[in-house]
Amino acid sequence: MYKYQNISKQLRNKFTDGTYQPGDLVPDQESLAKEFDTTRMTVRKAIQSLIVEGVVYTKRGAGTFLRKDYQAESRNILDSSVDRPIGTTLTYAGRKVTSKVLSLDARLPTEDEQNALIIGPNEPVYVIRRVRYVDSKVYSYEHTIMPTKITTITKKILEGSIYKHLADEAHIHIAGSHRRIHAIKATQDDVDALSAELDDPVLVIDQVSYTEEGEPFEKSEEHFPYATSSVIADVELREHDNH
């Protein structure tokens, strides 16, 4: 676990043990940096992860506050935030994230995959299918396409975090992703992976992820069961938006 993830976990505990009440002002980043003996940059990343989780929010010129509607038990809902970090492991840092690998194959890319990943027709890709669990509960079903030239992928890697492997072993630094969110009727794959009923609504996030060099390295489709997932987006109005 990265240091900022450990800090966000400790802060989250303070928000749930009664140290802070909903709506309370959180200490400034400089004070938190001293408290945790770290840099403001690390604290900033910890706060950002809590913002994404919907635990705190920032108000320009006033500071960071514990959300008034925050309840610890609400974390049982596996929110699929629009601006969540890339990867389930990072999104739910501090919680038990596991994977069941359904298949790992390689083949030549389709035309759509070539266009999305900017690769040629003869550049092979991995086809990855797995189910992700958070605290032993089904979180999502993933279908991922990744060029084999990026790194060597094994079943053992897929049982953990692909992105951690990319960072630690392949030295690939992820910059971000382009996401499209929509809903579909459950297919047989969703029935098998998510225990959904055929034609149940399923939340889908399509994304293409990029390295810091701007190279797309992954085209993925993630399916979420409707009963335990929701999409959260915080919208901040700028001053001129009110005019």
Q: In the CATH hierarchy, what is the class of the largest domain?
A: Alpha Beta
Q: Look at the structure and give the mean pLDDT.
A: 84
* Class per helix and strand makeup: alpha+beta
Helix fraction?
25-40%
CATH homologous superfamily placement of the largest domain: Chorismate lyase-like
Total helical elements: 8
Radius of gyration: 19 Å
* Number of structural domains: 2
Instruction: Give the tally of β-strands.
Output: 9
Give the topology string: H per helix, E per strand.
HEHHEEHEHEEHHEHEE
Q: Work out the strand percent.
A: 25-35%
Q: For the largest beta sheet, what order do the strands appear in spatially? A: 4-5-6-9-8-7
CATH architectural group of the largest domain:
3-Layer(aba) Sandwich
CATH T-level topology of the largest domain = Chorismate lyase
Explain what this protein looks like in three dimensions.
By secondary structure, the chain is of the alpha+beta class. Helices cover 27% and strands 31% of the residues. The protein is built from eight helices and nine strands. It has helices at residues 3-16, 29-35, 40-53, 88-91, 111-117, 155-159, 162-168, 188-194, and strands at residues 25-26, 56-59, 63-66, 97-107, 125-134, 137-147, 174-185, 201-211, 216-225. The strands form two sheets. It has a six-stranded antiparallel β-sheet with strand order 4-5-6-9-8-7. A three-stranded antiparallel β-sheet has the order 1-3-2. A hairpin with a 3-residue loop joins strand 2 and strand 3. Helix 1 (3-16) packs across helix 3 (40-53) and helix 2 (29-35) crosses helix 3. It is globular and about 55 Å long. It starts with a helix and ends in an 18-residue tail after the last strand. The model has no long low-confidence stretch (mean pLDDT 84).
